[in-house]
Amino acid sequence: MARIACIMVADFSIAALVRSNPALADKLLAIGRSLAPHAELDAVAPRARELGIRPGMTIAQARAIASDLAVLHRSPAAESSAHSALLDAVESVSPVVESGAPGCVWLDLAGLHRIYNGEEEITAELARCVRRVGMEPAAGVAANKELAHLAARCGGVRVIEAGREREFLKWLPLDMLDLGKSDRGDDLEATLARWGMRRLGELARLDPDAVGTRLGRRGVELVRLARGGIHAPLVPRRRAEFFIETIELEYAIENLEPLGFVMRAMLERLAERLSMRALVAGDITLAFGMSGHRSFSRRVAVAAPSNDVRAILTLINLSLEAAPPEDGVESIRIEIAPRVPRPAQTDMFLPPSPAPDKLQATIARLAALCGPGNVGALRAENSHRPEAMRLDPFAPHPAPPIPEDAAAKNVTQLVIRAIRPVREIEVMCSREIPEFVRGENLGARVISIAGPWRRDGEWWLGFNGGDECGFIRDYYELALEDGGVYRIFRDLNSHKWFLDGAYD
Fold first, then answer.
1. What is the pLDDT of residues 191-234, one digit of tens each?
2. Per-residue pLDDT, 212
3. Distance in angstroms (rounded) separating the CA atoms of residues 360 and 393
4. How many CB atoms lie within 10 A of CB 212?
5. Mean pLDDT across the chain, nearest whole number?
C-alpha cells in the first residue's frame, strides 16, 4: 500500500520573511496589503495570533491590541527561495517529491522503510531537515495526498495508520479545510454551517448526487473526500539544475561591505541546501536589481567547487571590487550551479598542497592586487627564443607517474636554473674564446668551455614591423674557477654578452 507524507509550513509568507531575516523571529509580525492604517492584514504570526490579532483586521485595529506590531509587505522573492529550500530539504530524504502550493510538498515513502525504523522516524528526519533550512514544519502521513495534507494541517506530526482513515475524517472539523466557494459563488463553509454540518463525518453521510445539485462539482468532491475516495496521483518534480536565493532589500545598498554582509547570509543558506543534497557549489551567477529599474549581472567562476562560504564570498567580493555595480542595489539574486564533490587522496611521497578552495581564493586576491594579467603560471611559448614565455591561468599539475624501474636508475641528473630576465655580463676573450667572466656576484677565470652553438630565428617578424634581423646568438657553457657551471650567450646583433643560466 502506498504511503504519502505531506510537509507544510504554517503561515508560510511570514515564515519566509523570518527565514530571509532571522532578526524578525522575536518580533510580533503581520503582513498587510499596504502599510496604511486602514489596510487589512493578510497573515498574522503565531505570537500575534495569541494576543487576539486575526487576518482581516485593519492595521489600526491590530495595533490597538499590540502597539509594537510590525507590519511588512509580502515578499514573493523570499517565498520562492523558502519554497525551493523546503523542496531541497524534503528531497534529501526521498527522491520522489511533488511541489504543491507555497509551503506545501508531498513525498513518496516507498522504500524508505529499509533506511528508517518506521514512519515516525521518517517524519522526525524530515522535520530536522526542514529546520536546517530555517523553517518549522508540520507533517502528515497517510495513504494518499489528500489525507496526508489534512493530517499536516492539524499541526505537529500526525501519522494516519492504514485502515483508520475514516476514523480520522469522521472527527475532522470543516474549518480545517479551505472550502472556498461553490460553483454558484456561495461561501461553502457558511452554506454547510446553515445545514448543521460541522465535521467531515457528517458530510460523508449525505448523498453525493443531492449535494451536487445544490453545491455543484465542488460539493461532490467534498463528499468524496469525506469518504476517503479521492486518490490523486503523485507527480514528481524534476531535479533542480540550479540553486537560487533571492532577496528584496528595504533600501538600496551602495557600498560593497554591507552588500557582502547580506550575501554572506544568502550563501550560508545556499551552502546548507547544497550540503543536504551532498553537493558543492560550482560557478556562481549574481544578478542585482538596481535603482531606476536597471540590472547588473556577474558570473564568478569557481575553479575548485566547495561549500566554504568564506572562500566563495572572497571570490565574489574580489570580482565586485574589480568592477562594482554602478548604482545602489535593491535586490540580490544568487544562482549556483551544483557540482558533485570529488574525493581527494593525498600523496605519501609529496608535500601537502593547499586546499583547492583556499588556493583559488589566494589567486583571486593576488589578481586583485597585481592585476588579472599578472597572475598565472608560466608556460614555454612556441618559439625559437629560449626565454619566450606566456602566462596561462594557474592550475596545479598532477604528480608525474613514477616509472617501474625508477629504483634501478639511481643517477643524478644535472639541472639548469634559468635566469630570467637574462643578466648582462662582461666577457674577456682571446681569439674570440672566452677566458674571463665578470658580472653581478660573478667574477672568475674560465677553466673549461664548450661551444659555441648558434641559434637564430624570428627573422620573419620584420615583415610585421618588428626587428628586421630577428635574433642570432652564440651559446657557450663555461666552467669557472669558482666551481660553477654557467650558460652564456653572445648577441651577434648588439655584440653583448648575457648570463642565461646556471647548473645546480
1. 777 777 777 777 777 777 777 777 777 777 777 777 776 677 88
2. 74
3. 11
4. 16
5. 83
Cis amide linkage into residue 421, ω under 30° from 0: yes
SS3 category, 474: strand
Residue 201, SS3?
A: helix
Has residue 402 got a pLDDT over 70? no
Whole-angstrom Cα distance, residue 104 to residue 149? Answer: 8
CA distance 169 to 204: 9
Q: If you write DSSP's letter for every residue of 121-185 in order, what string do you get? A: HHHHHHHHHHHHTT---EEEEESSHHHHHHHHHT-SEEE--TT-HHHHHHT-BGGGS---B-TTS
Sheet strand arrangement including 294-300: 243-253, 329-339, 280-290, 294-300
CA dist., res. 355 & res. 353, Å (int): 7
CA 358 – CA 330 distance, rounded (Å):
31
Cα–Cα distance measured from residue 390 to residue 380, given in angstroms and rounded to the nearest whole number = 6
pLDDT digits (tens, 9 = 90+) for 75-114: 999 999 999 999 999 999 998 999 888 999 999 998 888 8
φ, ψ at 476 (rounded to 5°): -130, 150
**What phi and psi values does residue 373 have, to the nearest 5 degrees?**
-80, 0
